[in-house]
Design goal:
This protein has 370 residues and is of the alpha/beta class. It has 15 helices and 14 strands. Helix 10 links the parallel strand 11 and strand 12. The protein has a seven-stranded mixed β-sheet with strand order 2-3-1-4-7-6-5, covered by helices on one side. A seven-stranded mixed β-sheet has the order 12-11-8-9-10-13-14, with helices on both faces. The chain folds into two domains: 144 residues, VC0802-like, CATH 3.30.2130; 211 residues, Rossmann fold (3-Layer(aba) Sandwich).
Length: 370
């Protein structure tokens, strides 16, 4: 009986030269951690013996995976290959791809592809079928699904990401993980208690993110900042709240060894995200501030939210802090004014007190584990 498995391919990892082995090992470890199935190496790709629908959904959002599909290993015989192709439903609509890995095979990739196209006369309007020629066997892959590519989580260091529960901040962790970052979250909640906040959309979004890696979320009450900054005028209330978030992120990152802070800012998407405001809000922050969505249009961010499975959750109603602060922020905040306001209500004290009232939770594989 032909050997069946799921074939997992990567692209960027293959370009890592002498470091390729390290990235492959990390990808194997990550896949095993989140699917509880240990992949094996097979001629430049990874394989797992089988995958249910849930596992396939996880593989689609696993950083480092370029594409995967259901594969079968066949004897290196064209008649056997054609018989297997005949069993595939909808073969007449398939696009057949051939890759000759073993150059000693009697036909080139183009020649074998031409033979199969003449046999099956596919219309190339549907799915792809990939045939790879190895020294002793063929691998035929169908049901090909595109992954998100990039690098395996954990290859680029730890990042703390500001998380409100909106579309942008829900997408950012996936974009960072795609570049190899391990990502934890900071959420400032305005609801009366953590328990109430975690009965909102916040919890399922975090659970979704934790399908890719273990995630710690730092939960900080909004009330301390809110009570101590009453009366900020001139459209600076939202500006100062954003400043508070970055200062809070900087402090948490410094204490717990994160290498950077991330936000969901997109240049000029909203009034608080003008370049002038971004500059004023970011002034004096010690660590790098990553803004992976800075050049994305809203439509592009929505598409990413749907791709990562967080869009429908992120648009649910929730009393986020930004909506409570100001509806008409100043679009040209001055750094000098920001510094003056910080001193007037003692931002250092607000940060310290907020952290004293902070708690953390850890999620993994879609569940709270601590």
């Amino acid at each position: 009986m032909a050997e069946k498995f799921v074939s997992i391919h990567y692209n960027e990892i293959a370009l890592k030269g002498k470091n390729r082995g390290m990235f492959e090992k990390l990808l194997i470890k990550n896949i095993e951690n989140i699917t509880q199935i240990k992949p094996e190496r097979l001629n430049g790709r990874l394989t797992i013996p089988g995958a249910d629908e849930k596992t396939e959904k996880i593989l689609k959002i696993t950083p480092g995976i370029a594409w995967f599909g259901k594969s079968v290993k066949l004897p290196r015989d064209i008649d056997t290959l054609e018989k297997e192709l005949q069993t595939i439903e909808g073969i007449e609509n398939a696009e057949i791809e051939v890759k000759r890995i073993d150059k000693t095979f009697q036909y080139t990739s183009a020649e074998l592809k031409d033979i199969l196209n003449k046999k099956f006369k596919p219309k190339k309007t549907g799915f792809k079928i990939r045939i790879e020629i190895f020294p002793d066997f063929f691998v035929l892959t169908k049901n090909i699904e595109k992954g998100i590519g990039g690098l395996p989580v954990g290859s680029a260091g730890k990042v703390i990401s500001l998380f409100s529960g909106g579309i942008d901040s829900s997408v950012v962790p996936f974009e960072l993980m795609k570049r190899g970052c391990s990502v934890d979250l900071i959420h400032v909640y305005s609801l009366p208690s953590i328990e109430i906040a975690m009965r909102s959309k916040i919890k399922p979004i975090i659970e979704r993110i934790s399908m890719v890696e273990r995630v710690k979320v730092y939960l900080v009450p909004f009330s301390i900042f809110s009570l101590k900054t009453v009366g900020i005028g001139g459209g600076y209330d939202l500006i100062m709240f954003k400043r508070f978030l970055l200062r809070l992120g900087n402090e948490i990152a410094s204490r717990y060894n994160y290498k950077a802070i991330a936000t969901g800012d997109s240049i000029s998407q909203v009034a608080s995200q003008t370049l002038t405001n971004i500059s004023a809000i970011s002034y004096g922050i010690d660590l790098p501030i990553l803004r992976p969505l800075s050049t994305f249009n809203k439509e592009e961010i929505i598409a990413l939210g749907k791709k990562y499975g967080v869009y429908d959750l992120s648009i649910q109603k929730y009393r986020d802090c930004c909506s409570l602060v100001s509806k008409h922020p100043n679009t040209y905040a001055k750094k000098e004014k920001v510094m003056e306001l910080e001193k007037s209500f003692n931002m250092d004290e607000i940060i310290e007190e907020s952290m004293k009232n902070m708690i953390s939770m850890v999620f993994f594989r879609g569940e709270k584990i601590s």
